[in-house]
Amino acid sequence: MKIKEAEGNAKIKQAYANAVPDICGVILSECEQKEGKVIVMTEEKKKRGFIKYLMAAASLVLVLGAGALLTNVYRLNYAVSSTVSLDVNPSIQITVNEKERVLEVKALNKDGGIVIGDMDFEGSDIDVTMNALIGSMLRKGYLNELANSILISVDNNDPAKGEQLQEKLTEKVNELLESDGFFGAVLGQTIRENGNLQQLAEQYGITQGKAQLIQQILDSTTGHTFEELAPLTINELNLIISTGTSSVEKVSSLGYASDKAYIGEDKAKETAFAHAGVSGQDILFYEMDMDLEKGVMVYEIEFKCGGFEYEYDIDAQTGEIIKNKKEVDDDFPAGSQASSGKTDDPDAGSQSPAPGTKTPDAGSQTPASGTNTPAAGTQSPGGNTATPPSSPQDGVGNAGGTSGILTLEQAKEIALNHAGQSASNVYFDKVELDHDHGMQKYEIEFIAGSTEYDYEIDAVTGAILKYDWDQDDDHMHISESSGNGAGGAVGTITSEQAKEIALNHAGQSASGVYFDKVDLDYDDGIQKYEVEFVSGNMEYDYEIDAITGAILKYDWDQD
Amino acid sequence: MLDMTSMKKLRADCNPDAVEQCLFGIQRQESGALEEFYYRTSASVYGFALSVLKNAQDAEDIMHDFYVVVWSAAEKYRPGGKPMAWVLTITRNLCLQKLREYRKKSDIPQEDWENYVRDNGNMSAEDKMILAECLRNLSDEERRIVLLHTVSGFKHREIAKFLELPLSTVLSKHNRALKKLRKIYGGEQ
Predict the structure, then answer these.
(1) A323 and which of A130, A177, A313, B136 could share a cystine (Cβ 3.0–4.6 Å)?
(2) CA–CA dist A411, A446 (Å, integer)
């Protein structure tokens, strides 16, 4: 059997491999062109300047290099005075003596080695060395329009001296990058000795400077781990720092980190606004951060509009909406809500179903419908169960015109309507707009009497995607006042019969199995028994229609 | 860089270390690495896109976009020995984007054999039979599980994580799928 399985697997693999259209050539040539395009697309001026700069950098190296030789700077002073580390993605460590002459240039990762190549800097001036290294990074594409950030860290036993050197180098490098239209971003810092950081740096194969920078980000933000941030490039770290709200102290920053590798803030903003169905001019508050979410760079966009607070995480690369959240804006003045624009109208309209039972207080809370328990609290004493929700369809129509997605209120009404309940005698557990596999849906949970309702409603079409009713066992026989036929009936087969059906089907006898679970459940409006039992190392899982005794689903698992 | 024949031998070989090495090469913008990466992963990317979009033209478009994205975004890959999960997550995101476009236009293309498989001259009669069996007998989910297991080399646990299903469900669905594919796997299981 194993052999056959392996053979079958191989056949399927082969079939799929053969089915793939061979477009490798197309992709390769496109990618190569794309690389060329990046340069072509930048303005002519920039391109020329760029080359000019490279030549300037190269000649600078030559001239200063020659000068260095003439003045015989190769001193026998081997004492390390400062350690300078350069991080882009390549990490390079430079040790210099007191005269700021280079003792050693060491690559701390593979990319660092590529940048250094076969250049020998021993005895050169630190400025010259920096020039040459940055020139090499530019030439080899490590510093480019897409990733333009560089971190310079200086470690000197004398902090004042270290700081002085760091300032000098930061400015120098910034000047180099800035010349001729290449916009670089330089971060500079002075290393403070810290055994812990040194250990982390070694563990992750990064410079102590980068470790310190990461530590500072961790100290000022939450939700990240060192492990997560360590593989990021300096450009990505710089984006997180520079767009974040928390400031990272003790790091001097010049220039702006490039986000050209990403879709850009404008595009991200556009995506979020379009998705929320709002227009830019209605926005009251807006904030954008770049951050790392589960290993992916994202634009975190927050804005307030029409009494709601929106939060989006948008994949910085693909523009995919990874997460979105819509909440009632607590700060929004209740009085001004009604007059604040069209988007509120459908909310107000859809509230009409149970106007009689509302206290004025609850009324003013209407647009803020969301999740607040106070509203539910004031509603339940109202207790007018008879009022059927009136024409929710009107509400749906209105909303379509303004925002593109249903309001919370409308989604609640669809669920209530379907469940045959009215807002006044249910307690809402959860009303949430959720983004799942590219679909927006409302998740609505409410309780009426002893029954728990659980709905998922498509936020665009208003279709009920899934629903589930659960009743506490104690109340099993309390029939529902529900309009839905399935709700009222009590199973016509007993749990014993359900067990028997499952056992028969599995070819087991009651004495040989251990029952894990025998439950009566409502799912998709059908009453069914969920029966689970174990025999030996097999686990059986059955769903049995409580009315007909039919096996709806079964699953056998071997542990 | 490898020559064409040895390249083709690598087809659908998703050995994680080798795929990761390719990604490192792409990070250095080596086109040879992209080429090898293509041959190793295209069956997974194409197969998965096909299982979501059920349309050969769309799957091809996704595949094209995928490699272009990877070329310019390979530095986003974090070494960790799970390059195929990364590959398929990007593929899935691209597919979802496509689906959303369709939802907007509400013209989802026909799901039928004609659209599902396009003859590219490389397929044997047996290959076609196998794909037809997979399409006809398996649910979308089962097909995805079989594909991830056989073509992308995912372990059951990895499939469970990727598809957000309990491990037990993946195991039983896979088992059931194998039974449904008697023609491919031989009579008795």
Answers:
(1) A313
(2) 12
pLDDT in tens, A435-451: 766 677 888 888 777 67
Domain boundary, last residue among B81, B96, B118: B118
Please give the residue range of the domain that contains residue A369: 334-488
Q: Are residues B165 and B81 in the same domain?
A: no
Radius of gyration of chain A (CA): 33
Query: Does residue B147 share a domain with residue B83?
Result: no
Number of domains observed in the structure of chain A:
5
The side-by-side arrangement of strands in the sheet containing A321-328 is: A285-293, A296-305, A308-315, A321-328
Per cent of chain A over pLDDT 90 is: 0
The answer, yes or no, to whether residue B106 has pLDDT greater than 60, is no
What is the domain range of residue B178?
A: 122-189
A70 sits in which H/E element: helix A44-70
Contacts of A532 (CB under 8 A, 6+ apart): A515, A516, A517, A518, A539, A540, A541, A542
In a mutational test of the A interface, the residue from B91, B96, B120, B130 whose CB has the highest number of chain A CBs within 10 Å is B130
> Does residue A101 share a domain with residue A151?
yes
- Residue A426 contacts by C-beta under 8 Å, 6 or more apart in sequence? A376, A416, A446, A447, A448, A453
* Cβ neighbour number for residue A355 with a 10 Å cutoff: 10
Distance from CA of B139 to the nearest CA of A (A): 15
- Reply yes or no on whether the pLDDT at A213 is more than 50: yes
Asked if B34 lies within 8 A of A31 by C-beta distance, the reply is: yes
A9 Cβ under 8 Å from any chain B Cβ: yes
CATH number, residue B187: 1.10.10.10
* A459, A438 Cβ separation under 8 angstroms: no
CATH of the domain at B91: 1.10.1740.10
How does pLDDT run across A310-321, given as a tens digit for each residue? 888 888 877 888
Q: Cβ of A516 under 8 Å from any chain B Cβ?
A: no
The answer to whether position B6 is within a domain reads: no
Residue A347 lies in a domain: yes
Residue A151 has pLDDT above 50, yes or no: yes
Average pLDDT, chain A: 67
B84 and B131 housed in the same domain: no
- The answer to whether residues A265 and A287 touch, using CB atoms and an 8 Å cutoff, is no
Same domain, A291 and A381: no
User: What is the distance between the alpha carbons of residues A502 and A7, in angstroms, rounded to a whole number?
Assistant: 35
Reported as a single tens digit per residue, the pLDDT across B140-176 is 889 999 999 999 999 898 899 888 888 888 999 999 9
* Same structural domain, B102 and B136: no
The H-assigned helical ranges of A140-284 are 159-178, 195-204, 208-220, 226-229, 234-243, 265-276
Instruction: Say whether both B136 and B150 belong to one domain.
Output: yes
The verdict on A295 touching B (C-beta cutoff 8 Å) is yes
